[in-house]
């Protein structure tokens, strides 16, 4: 297998780490626009199968030439680049997967379905943790029931040690985080698509290991799930988990306009409030890497004529031996497994498809279990 990986940041490092553990991988092509970052990751990986290239990911023709002969391309770059990368993959007849980050971009990727089918290519956007892994878990729950009625997904990336007023450390890009906090959220209620505001409907959730947490709506975590299950499932919602008080702090910043896209003048200089906020989040809330990922899933429905409730839970911690954070593991490993399954033929659907329609759920969950990310389903007695 030959796989190309675009992006040498934290998530790219996690994807590369996992791909290189596969003995069937002959070559990993690694590219980034930042040569220093690219060389640093290549040095850390220290594997003769890695081939590096400094590349402008916005140049679709250059990307298409670079991935010629590859079985799959993985994007660990900004979501802003994913549509062009998907087009480049189709041009090169190479399968493609990314970690999502923006519902509008994903919709435009999925609109490439006919062209991808015509050329025998599979595109799977949104294949990280949430969205991504939660989509696969929902598919698996649907497979384990005769009729699925309600889906409830709660996911959070948190520091192991609670510090300061925020009790939060940045575990992925600030740009993506702000997107989740400010964009509208899609849910299913009574089987119909409904849009709700982010940072709303805050509720208390108790985790057996972490104690009291809060859950609130954020954008994009379930991605295509509401549309996929509209008319089939009565209720479907996704919320983010944080330590208590987080949503109120974010709302206070937004009330001041710090999520604004338009420029404002400060001391004779034009400043975009959102860019300032993202810079401050990156600088002030950067963590030490000792994080955790917590996931709660609850699925109600019917099986064999009777009511059934399934639950699943994940609590994953940073791996100090490999230096991979929990968020890197839980985001990077699912997309790496997807790339491997695209390359070795275990994913057979062609076209542009969301994870819940393309990925064999039991197989992906088995692969994650082999990597120490175990998410068993348990039945809750009625």
TrEMBL record:
The UniProt record lists the keyword Oxidoreductase: yes
Source organism superkingdom: Bacteria
Keywords noted in UniProt: Oxidoreductase
Domain Saccharopine dehydrogenase NADP binding: 3-124
GO molecular function, one term: oxidoreductase activity
Xref: SUPFAM superfamilies: Glyceraldehyde-3-phosphate dehydrogenase-like, C-terminal domain, NAD(P)-binding Rossmann-fold domains
Residues in Saccharopine dehydrogenase-like C-terminal domain copies: 128-373
Keyword Lipid metabolism on entry: no
Entry protein name: Saccharopine dehydrogenase
Species this chain originates from: Candidatus Coatesbacteria bacterium RBG_13_66_14
